From TrEMBL:
InterPro entries: Bact_HTH_transcr_reg, Tscrpt_reg_HTH_GntR, WH-like_DNA-bd_sf, WH_DNA-bd_sf. Keywords: DNA-binding, Transcription, Transcription regulation. This is Mannosyl-D-glycerate transport/metabolism system repressor MngR. The keyword Transcription applies. GO terms for molecular function: DNA binding; DNA-binding transcription factor activity. The keyword Transcription applies. Residues 7-73, 73-141 form the HTH gntR-type domain.
């Protein structure tokens, strides 16, 4: 990204993101803030200002624990609910290997921090735990549809 005045850099980033959304290059979830920092070679605070600008314009919206989305698109449930639904959708059974953090990040387009938080909640609920090897395994299956979180 060419560097203009420091005060206007966040506007250049927001305009670039707006254009990607308009052209359909971003259709639902935006890349993580870390990915945007790398892509635009700017500071995290510049990315935060660019995202805040787009949010104020109603172009994007944030979802706690899930990231930033193009307004009116995407699954807005907390990440822990989406990951818990993975136990049902993938037909996993008690004792099966649970996906790694990296696999979950890629599948849900979420940051490692968000994935770790969801895993911790699932471990707290007794749904997953450390397996015999280094990874995690399914310890129990969720009851009903969706997961109640505190």
């Amino acid at each position: 990204m060419p560097q203009g005045s420091p005060r206007g850099t966040y506007l250049e980033v927001s305009e670039s993101l707006r254009e990607k959304i308009r052209k359909g290059k971003i259709t639902e979830a935006l890349p993580s803030q870390s990915a945007l920092v790398s892509e635009y070679s700017v500071s995290r605070s510049t990315i935060e200002r660019a995202l805040a600008t787009l949010k104020a314009e109603g172009v994007i919206e944030s979802v706690q624990g899930a990231g930033w989305f193009v307004a009116g698109t995407g699954d807005r449930r907390p990440l822990v609910e989406k990951v818990t639904d993975l136990l049902r959708a993938d037909g996993l059974r008690v004792g099966d290997r649970f996906p790694t953090e990296k696999e979950l990040c890629e599948r849900f387009g979420a940051s490692r921090t968000a994935v770790r938080s969801a895993i911790a909640q699932m471990e707290g609920q007794g749904l997953i735990g450390k397996g015999a090897a280094r990874g995690r395994e399914v310890r129990a299956l969720p009851a009903g549809r969706g997961t109640q979180t505190a």
